[in-house]
Amino acid sequence: MKYEKSCGAVIFRKAEDGWNVLLIRHTKGRHISFPKGHVEPGETESQTAEREILEETGLRVKVDRRFRAENRYNIRPDTQKLVVIFTARTAQAEITPQPEEIAEAFWLPVEEAAARLTYERDRKIMRDAFEHIQKAQKGTAE
């Protein structure tokens, strides 16, 4: 069995009417999910997530490593993939999608984002991530 590992984040942005989530539609596979990518030698999981988010969306974020979710699945019969997802926040609204990998990138209110995600596991991760940032926000003065 071969193994692949990718890291990314559920990215939140505070809008006037509540929280928005960044979703992307990949050029390969055409599914809607979160920005993520393969770990490069010498990188930590959070460094990978931050680099991939910048490359795929143009957003500079600092991931919150206190939230970490895993998703494992087979991408081929002989290859298992591990995806590690953190949370991140940004005030930056403008997205610059990487055309080779990202067909579309867009902000949606949290409630609408759940309906647009392709996979149920991503919906669960997003709900858990949103709960985490809401708790973290209550613990800080904004």
Protein topology:
Elements: E1 2-15, E2 18-26, E3 32-33, E4 36-38, H1 45-57, E5 62-76, E6 79-89, E7 102-109, H2 110-116, H3 120-138
Parallel strand pairs: 1-6
Antiparallel strand pairs: 1-2, 1-4, 2-3, 2-7, 5-6
What does this structure look like?
β2 (18-26) and β3 form a beta hairpin. The chain is globular, with a radius of gyration of 14 Å. 27% of the residues lie in helices and 44% in strands. Strands 1, 2, 3, 4, 5, 6 and 7 form a 7-stranded mixed beta sheet that branches. With 142 residues, it is of the alpha+beta class. The protein has one domain: Nucleoside Triphosphate Pyrophosphohydrolase (Alpha-Beta Complex), CATH 3.90.79.10. The model has no long low-confidence stretch (mean pLDDT 94). α2 packs antiparallel against α3 (120-138). The chain has helices at residues 45-57, 110-116, 120-138; strands at residues 2-15, 18-26, 32-33, 36-38, 62-76, 79-89, 102-109.
